[in-house]
């Protein structure tokens, strides 16, 4: 329980902190956030990707009179559901109409309170780490009265803007190495990404889902982040890590995906049953996180580069597959349930891989009856035509800014 005067002091102190805080680079997501109306705005994303900073930027640009409260403040550790009555009193006294809550989901019955404020006509924004807030769970909790937006670590555009770099192969390689976590970009200390990796596994997964075999969870996560771009299956992983049941492995993979740590891309098939049965390709949320935490002793720039292009696509599309029949096309993007784009990724085209990369793309274009595809490289630019199909070869620093 929190006394009323203490709650008032905390809100005042946090407001002063925001007023004096440098909100840094304006995120590309800011102008895309919807105007607040009868639905709560939920900003979800991986830990430390900048959700709170985005909230401050929204507050400063559109809602300077909003009431802001971060529930992870140590002074609010004793906050209980009954204390929402005291918060209501504060809101009435200060005559606020817009409410912004960081990490409110750590408080019991927060959903009921947010729903109540919406019904009373307040505008509400909620952000939170995936340890306790996942957009997939909100449908039942807020009875559909929410709009969810995902936030990722810095994009290439944000990275070069922050670092004051020009689009080029050199800055692209810099981004591939560093990744997009704002704090790491600023400090360049590997411990930041080491601790982040462990925090997600322990706090966002093991604690949240009551996993006792933490060592296997850690080993599995490091194996996966060391093998990005490769197909994995529950059965194979069960045998590698000697886990008792495939279902246990699949649960671990699901938790990692829900926490945004890893993403699993299915093989395209019109049959959902075949999609489920086939191995999925694994990709990480950030290439810097791969570089710092991978257990691989060899540099695999091709796989990390493929991961980078996947992250660009994931920011835009929810439906992404890989295509594999006789040949393979790395990514097939769908929009509103319909085919939208075929993307092949190759770090550097050379005589040894050119035919394979082109034929894989041509096969996908013929399968979907599409005239043109894109092949992304680290620096090359070209154009190929075969069987009436066109493949545009684009350097990544151009493609990522389209």
From TrEMBL:
Domain AAA: 39-159
Chain ranges of the DUF4143 domain: 203-347
Organism superkingdom: Bacteria
Gene3D superfamilies linked: P-loop containing nucleotide triphosphate hydrolases (3.40.50.300)
Alphabetized InterPro entries for the sequence: AAA_14, DUF4143, P-loop_NTPase
Matches recorded under PANTHER family: AAA+ ATPASE DOMAIN-CONTAINING PROTEIN (PTHR33295:SF8), ATPASE (PTHR33295)
Protein name: AAA+ ATPase domain-containing protein
Organism field: Pedobacter suwonensis
Organism ancestry: Bacteria, Pseudomonadati, Bacteroidota, Sphingobacteriia, Sphingobacteriales
